[in-house]
Amino acid sequence: MNTDQLIIIGSGPAGYTAAIYAARAGLKPLVLAGAVTAGGALMNTTEVRLTGHLKRVVTGAGGTHEAPAVILATGSAYKELGLPEEKKFSGHGLSWCATCDGFFFRGQDIMAQRAKDNPKIRFAWNSAVTRIHGESKVTGVTLTDTRTGETREHGATGIFVAIGHLPRTELVIGQVELDAEGYIKVDAPTTVTNLSGVFACGDCAAALDAERYLAALDDADSIATALVEEPTHA
């Protein structure tokens, strides 16, 4: 069993940034990254116990780590349409990040920014994508009118799904307080959660909050030790 001063669960930008700032502050951060899912997505971690002075994390490989402070940087995942064709066309005309992949569709018929005054953009109001067409790449979609139920086909070479995110907080359900959408609640403007020594990471401030928490623990331990060792005078 390894005892670390600070455990960071998540290896996306927020997790790594927290680790850098924590290390620069003299802490000993341990970053738990995913074995299969890269970035800030949910790690290959099977169990997290956040109550008590020492927090315990058991990884999928069977390793156990304990620390007085934990930063949760598990990130979020893109919401999907729930269509069977999504996995097939992912990277072949279907994307969840227009900023990342929009360049590849320059000059083609795609959904771009919300800009009503742009003559290149057409809008399909009150419509839902109910099917994606194509063989090796996207060629079009089926649109269903949400009011009448009528369907029509629309040609397209690129689809960008932008319907929000799902927080990756499955590991801490029932422990850390979450909001109605499953995001971790923090005591703004800090990153402090409802559990002592547990922080939710959205930026490097999580590491700074953890530093202050651990420094306070060290001070408390030092004071307690001094009181015990102080000689008694008659």
TrEMBL record:
UniProt catalytic activity: [thioredoxin]-dithiol + NADP(+) = [thioredoxin]-disulfide + NADPH + H(+)
EC number, UniProt record: 1.8.1.9
InterPro entries, per the entry: FAD-dep_OxRdtase_2_FAD-bd, FAD/NAD-bd_sf, FAD/NAD-binding_dom, Ferredoxin-NADP_redctase_2
GO molecular function, one term: thioredoxin-disulfide reductase (NADPH) activity
Coiled-coil positions: none
Keyword Flavoprotein among UniProt keywords: yes
Keywords from the UniProt entry: Flavoprotein, Oxidoreductase
Domain of life where this protein originates: Bacteria
Record-annotated FAD/NAD(P)-binding domain positions: 109-207
Domain FAD-dependent oxidoreductase 2 FAD-binding per the UniProt entry, residue ranges: 6-41
Name of this protein: Thioredoxin reductase (NADPH)
Organism from which the protein derives: Arthrobacter ginsengisoli
Lineage: Bacteria, Bacillati, Actinomycetota, Actinomycetes, Micrococcales
